[in-house]
Amino acid sequence: MTDYMEITEAFHQARTAPDVTDRATGLEEADRIGGVALVQARLQGQGAEFCIDCDEAIPAKRRAAAPWAERCISCQDDHDKREGRRHG
């Protein structure tokens, strides 16, 4: 089963769960599956299609130039500035 299908199933179970505890468990499972898929993609050097900060699509030219990119250029610049202040 693909990650997408697993996440979809976990969300469905959360929506139809009979009580709050079961709904929370379903949401935690969907979050865990999504997190595992993201880590696997990062380990394989794959970037993201959408920016992890602003959720806008990462342009194809950026993904081609930096296949590991997880942020759009604007958000990456902001991230680099924040990190520079923290470490420098």
Automatic annotation (TrEMBL):
<keyword id="KW-0863">Zinc-finger</keyword>
<dbReference type="GO" id="GO:0008270">
    <property type="term" value="F:zinc ion binding"/>
</dbReference>
<dbReference type="Pfam" id="PF01258">
    <property type="entry name" value="zf-dskA_traR"/>
</dbReference>
<protein>
    <submittedName>
        <fullName>TraR/DksA C4-type zinc finger protein</fullName>
    </submittedName>
</protein>
<feature type="zinc finger region" description="dksA C4-type">
    <location>
        <begin position="51"/>
        <end position="75"/>
    </location>
</feature>
<dbReference type="GO" id="GO:1900378">
    <property type="term" value="P:positive regulation of secondary metabolite biosynthetic process"/>
</dbReference>
<dbReference type="InterPro" id="IPR000962">
    <property type="entry name" value="Znf_DskA_TraR"/>
</dbReference>
<keyword id="KW-0479">Metal-binding</keyword>
<keyword id="KW-0862">Zinc</keyword>
<feature type="domain" description="Zinc finger DksA/TraR C4-type">
    <location>
        <begin position="50"/>
        <end position="80"/>
    </location>
</feature>
